[in-house]
Amino acid sequence: MKAHELDQLEQRITATLQEGDILFISINAFLYKQVARGTGSWSSHVGFAIKEAGQWLVIESKVPRVTKTPLRKYLSRTCNGEVMVRRLPAPLSDTQLKQLKQVADRYLGEFYHLGFKFDSKRQFCSKFVHLVFKEALGIELGKVQSLEQLLNENPQASVGFWRCWYLGFIPWQRKTLTPASQISDPKLTTILSTV
């Protein structure tokens, strides 16, 4: 994305952004493209917005760890300016925002799980968002399901890729959670979409 396009996208996003908003993007890397394809979605990554010292940040689980990323840098990683901002229907109170930030801060620095295992101490993007919102607000975003359920629901997925990814053996009963299940979660409202 060119600098002036990124400027425009950032301005458009910040004009409507609120703390706690969830930002979905599409990362142009082979693994992320397979995640999107395997879930029938354009999106392959998710994080949520906070403001610190007047600066917008996105808290995300990315390779290698959970981190706070400046909004502009986060947006610069999306393909073709593809981004969607979703929000809970009721505004978050100051207490809820404080809880959200405190819970997220506890996960900072935790390593990424390249096998997308929900029942692991490691994080991945959609699991991180799910856990933080559940622990802080009691709201579960997205659908936890087995890899078998996920791949059966998405026949367009490349089983061959996932077989290679898991070194010849797909752990069919492994629980996971996808950005696609959060992007379609009815508990969220779409505030802005460039897709």
Please characterize this protein's 3D structure.
The protein has one domain (3-193): endopeptidase fold (from Nostoc punctiforme) (Alpha-Beta Complex), CATH 3.90.1720. The model has no long low-confidence stretch (mean pLDDT 96). Helix 4 (94-107) crosses helix 5. Strand 3 (55-61) and strand 4 form a beta hairpin. It has 195 residues and is an alpha+beta fold. The strands form 2 sheets. Strands 4-3-2-1-5-8 form a 6-stranded antiparallel sheet, with helices on both faces. It starts with a helix and ends with a strand. It contains 8 helices and 8 strands; from the N terminus they run H-E-H-E-E-E-H-E-H-H-E-H-H-E-H-E. It comes from Amphritea balenae. InterPro entries: Papain-like_cys_pep_sf (IPR038765), Peptidase_C92 (IPR024453).
Strand and helix map with partners:
Elements: H1 3-16, E1 22-27, H2 30-39, E2 45-52, E3 55-61, E4 66-70, H3 71-76, E5 78-87, H4 94-107, H5 125-137, E6 145-146, H6 147-153, H7 159-165, E7 175-176, H8 179-183, E8 189-193
Antiparallel strand pairs: 1-2, 1-5, 2-3, 3-4, 5-8, 6-7
